[in-house]
Specification:
With 193 residues, the protein is α+β, with helices and mostly antiparallel strands. The strands form two sheets. A five-stranded mixed beta barrel has the order 2-3-4-8-7. Strands 1-6-5 form a three-stranded mixed β-sheet, with no helix packed on it.
Amino acid sequence: MRRKSLYSIPGLCLISIAWYLYADQQITVNEVGTQAWVIPFSNVDDLINHPQVNLIVKATVTSNSQPKTYVLEEKIGIERKRMFTEVIVDQVLKCDNRVTSSQSISIIEPTYITDNGLKPGKTEFPTGLYRKAGSGKTYIFLLTWNEQQQAYNLYGVHQGKYNINGTDSRESEIEMINENYRHLKASIKERLL
């Protein structure tokens, strides 16, 4: 009897550790931003030819992504929390003369992810329907230069990022609930790839 309890305690500990490691990788979404100010583009030409879209790239996301807080408007003290994510440019589709293929650039994603501490998991605080780009996945990014941060902002929140090989399940959720996004994504892929 004593021998069985000696084996079951380490087994129970291993199961608990495995569960915690799995649960600690899960991301809970807590939408904080509004979508009301996002211009819903219905035409791909209007989106890619918008004067604020200075760079369009096909790029692969690296695992280098850091949450960062910066002051948006110093006079009134508005702070913004965003994810600064490194991507490797595979192909430049619209050029702004700052970027070439195979170059690493930093993009500012309209979301913020924080670890929950001892409570398992992470919490993502996105603007509207945006979801964090997945590490190792390939996307088309529509970008605008942010002089203050010396990095690129995604243009149009979720309308500025399109997973091109169907490997981002979180983006697929947005496609299911937003017909306009689904249409734009198909048009972007058809037009730019």
